[in-house]
């Protein structure tokens, strides 16, 4: 079924056919991820200037993520009849406003309000972008298309967060958010030009039993997604704190995160070449790499060189995670692509927010050295679910 708002239906084909639209989504994803995670890199500086503890400043990530988790599905359902492209552009406008508010905020409360605006935008953006990426190509190319779009998120880790962190360290975290606001505004114009409109298709006409089966598989994928993100962000939210405690100077945090992010592109590349052929074994391998890296951080801390090396291994594994779970969820066909995108987005951010909160509790309780071990245990639990739920994570694409 074609949306009444989309007068020319896009015909999905190969990744090359959809190159312009995929590039636009990738760049937008880069800015969205950088907006979400920038506080991680400038957390110590923000807490100092705003007069709050690092654990309290970490709530800027927690509240943002919980807003996304709570709002992704309802906002997607409420806007399901609106044109997808116009809605996506609206989220980019909201990102611009959110970053601008944070840049000029006089108090922590106003910073939190700006982050709340970004949280609302984020609740829709990633729900839309996951579905959009899958609609731009034929089903046989879903994994590759989503891996490329997700490369924007990886680039956010590689370039966005580290460069913004370095900028924030050099001239102040407010300048970093101001530059990010300008980047979001420019990306809005780029997306308006490059991204084609797509139709909103009707739900699949399956039997009740088949729908129940597909929904069960979708539930398994999204629950595992939440578990892995919980483990990831229990540690990643406080990665700057870990590096500083291991002896790295404040000026070195940005460059180290840049190097770690660059290594994560190996994982993103690996997802792109394996998800359309052997998605199950690919996911198990990248999660295992994450566990090894996290355990190594805990064992090596506070030896700086080994901590940095272990962080690179951890980052390499995580580079493949987002596109792996997005592709697995889309392939369950447990709902429409928009609803699937919302569920993947919500569960990822439930894990992000929960991880930030859990990491803060561990940090304030048993201490920083235990944070990587808690993260590793949670990701390991995710591997167990993937191994057990074989139909939700099939060996080959359905």
UniProtKB/TrEMBL annotation:
Q: Which InterPro entries does the record cross-reference, listed alphabetically?
A: MFS, MFS_dom, MFS_Efflux_Transporters, MFS_trans_sf
Task: Look up the domain of life of the source.
Answer: Bacteria
Name of the protein in question: MFS transporter
Q: Write the record's keywords in alphabetical order, separated by commas.
A: Cell membrane, Membrane, Transmembrane, Transmembrane helix
Q: How does it sit in the membrane?
A: Multi-pass membrane protein
Major facilitator superfamily (MFS) profile domain ranges (all copies):
21-394
Its localization reads: Cell membrane
Q: Which CDD domains match?
A: MFS_NepI_like
Presence of the UniProt keyword Transmembrane helix in the record: yes
Kindly list the residue ranges recorded as spanning the membrane: 21-43, 55-75, 87-110, 116-133, 145-163, 175-198, 218-236, 242-271, 283-301, 307-330, 342-364, 370-389
Gene3D superfamilies linked: MFS general substrate transporter like domains
Q: Does the keyword Plastid apply?
A: no
């Amino acid at each position: 079924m074609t949306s009444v708002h989309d007068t020319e239906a896009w015909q999905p084909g190969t990744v090359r056919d959809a190159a312009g639209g995929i590039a636009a989504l990738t760049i937008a994803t880069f800015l969205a991820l950088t907006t979400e995670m920038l506080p991680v890199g400038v957390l110590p500086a923000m807490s100092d200037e705003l007069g709050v503890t690092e654990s309290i400043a970490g709530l800027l990530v927690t509240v943002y993520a919980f807003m996304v988790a709570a709002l992704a599905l309802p906002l997607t359902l409420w806007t399901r009849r609106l044109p997808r492209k116009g809605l996506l552009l609206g989220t980019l406008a909201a990102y611009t406003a959110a970053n601008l508010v944070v840049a000029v905020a006089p108090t922590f409360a106003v910073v939190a309000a700006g982050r709340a605006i970004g949280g609302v935008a984020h609740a829709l953006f990633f729900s839309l972008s996951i579905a959009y990426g899958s609609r731009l190509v034929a089903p046989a190319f879903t994994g590759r298309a989503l891996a490329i779009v997700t490369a924007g998120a990886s680039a956010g880790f590689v370039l966005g967060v580290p460069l913004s962190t370095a900028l924030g360290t050099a001239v102040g975290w407010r300048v970093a958010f101001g530059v990010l606001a300008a980047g979001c505004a420019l990306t809005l114009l780029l997306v308006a030009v490059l991204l084609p409109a797509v139709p909103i298709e009707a739900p699949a006409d399956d039997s009740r039993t088949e729908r129940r089966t597909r929904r069960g598989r979708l539930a398994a994928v999204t629950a595992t997604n939440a578990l892995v993100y919980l483990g990831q962000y229990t540690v990643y939210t406080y990665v700057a704190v870990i590096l500083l405690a291991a002896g790295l100077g404040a000026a070195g945090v940005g460059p180290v995160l840049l190097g770690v992010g660059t290594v994560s592109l190996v994982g993103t590349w690996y997802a792109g070449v394996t998800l359309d052929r052997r998605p199950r074994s690919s996911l198990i391998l990248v999660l295992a790499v994450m566990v090894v890296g996290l355990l190594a951080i805990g064992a090596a801390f506070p030896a700086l060189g080994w901590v940095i090396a272990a962080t690179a291994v951890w980052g390499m594994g995580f580079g493949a995670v987002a596109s792996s779970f997005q592709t697995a969820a889309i392939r369950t066909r447990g709902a429409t692509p928009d609803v699937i995108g919302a569920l993947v987005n919500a569960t990822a951010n439930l894990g992000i927010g929960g991880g930030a909160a859990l990491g803060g509790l561990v940090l304030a309780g048993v201490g920083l050295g235990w944070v990587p071990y808690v993260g590793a245990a949670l990701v390991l639990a995710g591997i167990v679910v993937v191994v057990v739920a074989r139909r939700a994570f099939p060996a080959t694409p359905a």
